[in-house]
């Protein structure tokens, strides 16, 4: 049996891991988009023939894990895409949104390439390609055993606690008469998440493909997350009379912020200032979250029973239209604007940053991981000047960071997730979805816990197991 790594290899985007069994069955774990500066060409070619893939098993809906599914279909893939029901529901809005962004961004990119005398690039995929991909989804509940190729491979999903419907994938593969148990963690969530259930323990594995995003760090302990958020809002909107601009992923991170603000509002601790959720995708995602409350933890379910709605309070406004979004830039009064994307690489947030970064009254609040070379990372790292839409913009606004909203486990939480395993029985661990320096640090921590063979695969590396 062969494993090949076609993305998220010594980096954090483009998750794609290909299993080829002894009988030639090809199973693709995730099919993610590479994100960041100058990644369009990288997304053009897979490194394998999409027509040869028998099925895809999708860990969750984030675009760096699902975003190339429409291109896979466009290039000839014609098999099932297995995912939880919530993942499929989120992909219905996220892949269509991604297709729209592809079309818009390519137009600007090709105009620049023409000016440079370079050949134009092919559209990654269209809205029609995304719709074709969505038609191939097969919804699988957690714990259900699914058979592939007449029982050659069986797999099941367990709750990874990272995103609504996110899953770790557990495969039992006939490897020439000997069964091999392989787990792909997907992205590992955090125990004690404000909305979602904690990650589940999983069956003993022989091989593990494990994420390593925060392999070198612990999240700063947040003893009073609501108090921290209240302070930022008060200092920015009440004392400085400025705007609080929050780049946030439309799915999960935005809802976590709204839930936190809802609790502050319900307890009378939130100043009476307007809060704008400026993202059509976030509006749709919030509705999907409400419709899938069975994935929520008991604490938020109890809050909903008492409050009625965890995602609605006075002064909260959900915005979809372009006209309403543009009007926010002309607004002089204090307000909170939460807008996608979380890494500030696309979407309406770039316009809000362009219009508000050079005002000392304002604050930008970073609430999650930002890949290197993204606009969000530049702001998070303290760059004094950033480039937005080809213009140099001074960062005069305050920058605050709240990692308590992070959906990725830190190294302590990842080790806790892996503690259900007998390390001596795990033959190899492959670290993916992480920057190399962080993976080296996590490798040593895994060795300290008794895991014997830790590999950090290169892009397109092939491994026989």
UniProtKB/TrEMBL annotation:
It comes from the Bacteria. Keywords: Hydrolase. InterPro entries: Beta_Casp (IPR022712), MBL (IPR050698), Metallo-B-lactamas (IPR001279), RibonucZ/Hydroxyglut_hydro (IPR036866), RMMBL (IPR011108). This is MBL fold metallo-hydrolase. It holds the Pfam family Lactamase_B. The keyword Hydrolase applies. Residues 13-249 form the Metallo-beta-lactamase domain. Residues 254-379 form the Beta-Casp domain. CDD domains: TTHA0252-CPSF-like_MBL-fold.
């Amino acid at each position: 049996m062969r494993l090949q790594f076609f993305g998220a290899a010594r980096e954090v985007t483009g998750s794609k891991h290909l299993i080829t069994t002894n009988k030639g069955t090809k199973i693709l774990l995730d099919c993610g988009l590479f994100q960041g500066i100058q990644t369009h060409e990288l997304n053009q070619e897979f490194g394998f023939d999409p027509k040869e893939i028998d099925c895809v098993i999708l860990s969750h809906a984030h675009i760096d894990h699902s975003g190339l599914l429409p291109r896979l279909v466009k290039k000839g893939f014609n098999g099932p895409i297995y995912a939880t029901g919530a993942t499929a529901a989120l992909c219905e809005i996220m892949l269509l949104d991604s297709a729209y962004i592809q079309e818009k961004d390519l137009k600007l990119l090709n105009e620049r390439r023409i000016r440079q005398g370079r050949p134009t690039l092919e559209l990654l995929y269209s809205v029609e390609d995304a719709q074709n991909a969505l038609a191939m989804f097969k919804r699988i509940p957690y714990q259900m055993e699914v058979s592939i190729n007449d029982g050659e491979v069986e797999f099941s999903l367990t709750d990874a606690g990272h995103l609504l419907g996110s899953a770790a994938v557990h495969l039992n593969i006939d490897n020439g008469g000997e069964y091999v148990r392989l787990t792909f963690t997907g992205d590992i969530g955090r125990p004690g998440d404000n909305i979602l259930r904690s990650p589940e323990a999983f069956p003993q594995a022989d091989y593990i493909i494990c994420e390593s995003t925060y392999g070198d760090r612990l999240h700063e302990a947040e003893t009073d997350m609501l108090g921290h958020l209240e302070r930022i809002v008060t200092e920015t909107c009440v004392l400085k009379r400025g705007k609080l601009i929050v780049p946030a992923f439309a799915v999960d991170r935005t809802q976590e912020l709204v839930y936190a603000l809802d609790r502050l509002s319900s307890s009378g601790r939130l100043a009476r200032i307007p809060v704008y959720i400026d993202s059509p995708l976030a509006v749709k995602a919030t509705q999907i979250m409400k419709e899938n409350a069975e994935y929520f933890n008991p604490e938020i379910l109890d809050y909903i029973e008492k409050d009625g709605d965890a995602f609605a309070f006075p002064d909260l406004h959900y915005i979809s239209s372009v006209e309403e979004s543009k009007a926010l830039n002309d607004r002089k009064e204090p307000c909170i604007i939460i807008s996608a994307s979380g890494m500030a690489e696309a979407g309406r947030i770039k316009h809000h940053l362009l219009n508000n970064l050079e005002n000392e009254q304002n604050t930008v609040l970073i609430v999650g991981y930002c890949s290197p070379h993204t606009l969000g990372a530049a702001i998070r790292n303290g760059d004094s000047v950033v480039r937005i839409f080809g213009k140099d913009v001074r960062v005069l606004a305050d920058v605050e960071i709240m990692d308590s909203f992070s959906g990725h486990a830190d190294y302590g939480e990842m080790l806790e997730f892996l503690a259900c395993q007998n390390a001596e029985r795990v033959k190899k661990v492959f670290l993916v979805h992480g920057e190399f320096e962080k993976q080296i640090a996590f490798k040593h921590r895994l060795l300290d816990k008794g895991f014997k063979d830790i590999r950090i695969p290169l892009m397109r590396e092939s491994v026989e197991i």
